[in-house]
Amino acid sequence: MLESVEARMEAFIADLDNREIMDLFRRLPAGKRLRAKLVLKIAGEREEAVKLAAVIEMIHAASLLHDDVIDDAQTRRGVASMNATEGSKQAIMMGDILYSKGFEELTGFERRIAAAVAGAVTQLSIGELMDVRLGERFNPDKEAYMKMVYQKTAALIEATAASAAMLAGKEAEVYATYGRNLGIAFQIIDDILDITQSAEKLGKPAMHDLEEGKTTLPYIYLYEALGERERQKLISLHGKPLDESARAWIKEKMVASGALQRAYLEAKALGEEAVALMRKAGEPALAEIVTAMIEREF
Ligand code: FPP
Ligand code: MG
Q: Helix 259-280 and helix 217-225: axis angle, to 10°?
């Protein structure tokens, strides 16, 4: 069913009538297409839903192109990032093209649908700015982190679910809550996998969040669990390449302190709320997306 979304994205890019842009677009790895799946599961495979899914995936792809420039990331989804192969200028402009074409197509939707998606993209951008700011030093403030995660990741998933519900004449608020919980849980699981999984599984360097300056939820919980001396050691590891002994120390402390488990239970609780909402709404496939996301290994 996702093929229809891929085809629609290609058709949108074909509208631009530019060979180079099509080539660059085709080289982007597809990823999980979580947002497209949500739209189609909520709104069915009607033409409007396929279009909405394509628009949202294009905006999401644009945000990742920009994010990789901002993070100076060399890989994305297991392959070299566009900024690594083509340079940052190309990656930024390709992001701008996907983003503006997505918005152009968004104007064809009902006003409240367009407003929900556009508003989320503003949140996404503020969230990315907060992420950069928070990365300047070790951040032990959970509230600031959770707010940033909501803006950077959950807001677009929330708007995806809500706008698909609007298309289908379903209750937008219920689906918005589902999407918000799914989005936050998704990011927390991502944070955990960064610490527990290998680079091969992740398709990007392992234990890279702290190196990049990202004090994710497990690190905040680890900080809370440590004594003063070890807190200082943890802070000293922030924002620079980790050697093997630092990696081993973090892993051991993450497990022994229960910080990883605490973060996992938090994601699980958010996920369970979303599952309960969808069971009540008679949407087992949407409940299953949450369960699979929480149990994923990459
Ligand atoms: C990935 O975060 C980044 C995002 C989910 C959002 C990025 C948003 C922008 C760059 C705002 C600009 C938006 C548009 C539409 C042009 P991450 O670095 O934590 O995750 P990663 O490990 O996947 O890189
Ligand atoms: Mg990044």
A: 130
pLDDT in tens, 184-228: 999 999 999 999 998 888 877 789 999 999 999 999 999 999 999
Kindly report the pTM of this predicted structure: 0.94
Other CB atoms within a 10 A radius of the CB of residue 252 amount to 10
Give, as residue ranges, everything with CB less than 5 Å from ion ligand 2. Answer: 67, 71
C-alpha–C-alpha distance, residues 275 and 84, integer Å: 39
**Helices and strands (DSSP H and E) totals, the chain:** 17, 2
Pocket test for ligand 1, best of 28, 67, 82, 100 (most atoms within 8 A of CB): 67
Q: Which residues pair with 79 in a beta bridge?
A: 76
Q: Which ligand places an atom closest to the C-alpha of 149?
A: 1
Cβ-contact 185, 274 below 8 angstroms: yes
The H or E element spanning position 80 is strand 79-80
Ligand nearest the Cα atom of residue 35 = 1
In the three-class reduction of DSSP (H, G, I as helix; E, B as strand; rest coil), residue 76 is classed as strand
Has residue 289 got a pLDDT over 90?
yes
Distance 191 CA to ligand 1 centre (A): 14
Q: How wide is the angle at C-alpha 69 spanned by C-alphas 65 and 71, nearest 5°?
A: 110
Q: For residue 177, give Cα distances in angstroms to 155, 181, 213, 232, 267.
A: 10, 6, 30, 38, 14
C-alpha of residue 73 to centroid of ligand 2, in Å: 7
* C-alpha 242 chain-centroid distance: 24
Tokens of 154: 């959950």
Q: Give the residues surrounding ligand 1 with Cβ less than 6 Å away.
A: 59, 62-63, 66-67, 71, 73, 95, 99, 121, 124-125, 128, 152-153
Query: What angle, 0 to 180 degrees and rounded to 10, lies between the N-to-C axes of helices 88-106 and 19-26?
Result: 100
